[in-house]
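Sequence in, structure out.
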Amino acid sequence: MTLTATETVTPAKQAGPGRRPARTRALIPYGYLSPTLLLIVVLMVIPIVMVIGYSFRDNVIVQENSVFAGITNYTKVLTDPDFLAALKNTGVFISVSTVAHLLLGLAFAMMLNTQLLSGVTKAVFRIVYILPWLFTIAVIAVIWRLLLDPSGVVNYVLHTLGVVQEGVNWLGDPGTALWAVTFVNIWSGYPFFMISLLAGLQGIPHDLYEAAAVDGANPVQRFLNVTLPQLRPVIISMAVLDLIWTSQQFALIWMTTGGGPLNSTEMLSTYTYKRAFSEYEFATASAAAVIVLLLTMVLAFFYVRQQRER
């Protein structure tokens, strides 16, 4: 008996009516992203490119034919005493605000996370502490302008306590205006840090504290060796973000002091705004905006790097 071997031929797999070519499937995610990418290009990339182009030209916008000016606008900005004063004020404003935000946020977060307070007390404190975060910048500016007025509540309380003899114009005195707006910014921004750090505290395993207590660590040592190391990623992220946000603060300064008096509260944001829309020097304002962009990109670089390391 002879066996005849037969070869089984497998037909080539053909794409069904519902299947798409691999190249088409690879382009589908970009199709979903295209509306967002288009908005980013139109609302962010193109304006940034235009501002960079304006910074190298003179008489832009106000005249039809502008001329190439090279780095003249940058030299003018970097040697302007008002810009240097704004840079100094911005440095003081963001550094003091960031440190105070972290300290107050951590203190209130630990208060709300402690076991010494009841649940009802914690709930009441959370409502009270979160109130500054609920107000808009416009409302905050109006409220504090009234409170810090020479005839306002703050001066009345200080005068009653014997701290001051007469009403102090906190926002109108060059010696106190910068510290006054910094205080207002601290008051309005610390709740965000409090909530973020509270979430970080609640994520720390309780076993770490129990192990530290068994080893004989006191509350201060547990805070330094357990709490702070566990909160380090959150603290670094929040600090870098606050530096970026505070450096771009405009509405609060503009609605309280307008950069005055005598440029004592002039910030990089208000300096750029005045150059563009008060003095109509759009080329100089563009150069100042590019400088601010570069400074912000440095902070953003460290933030992204820290997030990638996490």
